[in-house]
Design a protein that fits this description.
- The protein has three helices and nine strands, in the order αααβββββββββ.
- The chain is α+β, with helices and mostly antiparallel strands.
- The chain has a single domain (30-155), classed as Peptide methionine sulfoxide reductase (Metal Binding Protein, Guanine Nucleotide Exchange Factor, Chain A, Beta Complex), CATH 2.170.150.
- Strands 3-4-8-7-6-5 form a six-stranded antiparallel beta sheet. The chain has a three-stranded antiparallel beta sheet with strand order 2-1-9, with no helix packed on it.
- A hairpin with a 5-residue loop joins strand 6 (116-121) and strand 7.
- The structure holds zinc ion.
- The site of zinc ion (ZN) has 8 residues, from loops.
Length: 158
């Protein structure tokens, strides 16, 4: 009996350790199964946020949105960017020079063969976009290049 349980435990921990190698090694406050995310997110949101995909450039209505407000995570509503830090990068994706500190976490990815700084929501782990160093020189020089579908805009007037 004891042997059986131990074996089960070993198999279980083996399974989890394999799993954690494939995924980000951080633990997030919001924990949902992939099935739950699939129910809550649109197909495009799921592709971008859970599979690190990228929306088509110039496809997001938020790219050209310059209303006053706050941008929150589409997965968990945590605030990520203020509208005052948004700028037109011409890239076709919503771009910001400053993030709301503590709510975004970073990894390095090699998805396109070169190292890029990947950024994701520190609360739910949802992929947001990438961080580049070609932002406005007069502020931070950073360009947070964010998929519009990973964001929800909350207008100041609402
Ligand atoms: Zn989130």
């Amino acid at each position: 009996m004891f042997y059986k349980i131990t074996l089960k435990f070993i198999m279980l921990s083996f399974f989890f350790s394999c799993n954690s190698v494939a995924q980000k090694k951080e633990s997030f406050k919001i924990q949902k199964t992939e099935a739950e995310w699939k129910l809550e997110l649109t197909e495009l949101q799921y592709y971008v946020m859970r599979e690190e995909g990228t929306e088509r450039a110039f496809s997001s209505p938020l790219d050209k949105n310059y209303s006053e407000g706050i941008y929150v995570c589409a997965g968990c509503d945590v605030p990520l960017f203020y509208s005052k830090n948004k700028f037109n990068s011409g890239s076709g994706w919503p771009s910001f020079d400053v993030e709301i500190k503590g709510n975004i976490a970073y990894t390095i990815d090699y998805n396109i063969g070169v190292a890029r700084i990947e950024e994701h929501c520190a609360n739910c782990g949802g992929h947001l976009g990438h961080l580049f160093n070609d932002g406005p020189k007069n502020t931070t020089g950073k360009r947070h290049c964010i998929n519009g579908v990973a964001l929800k805009f909350i207008s100041k007037n609402e």
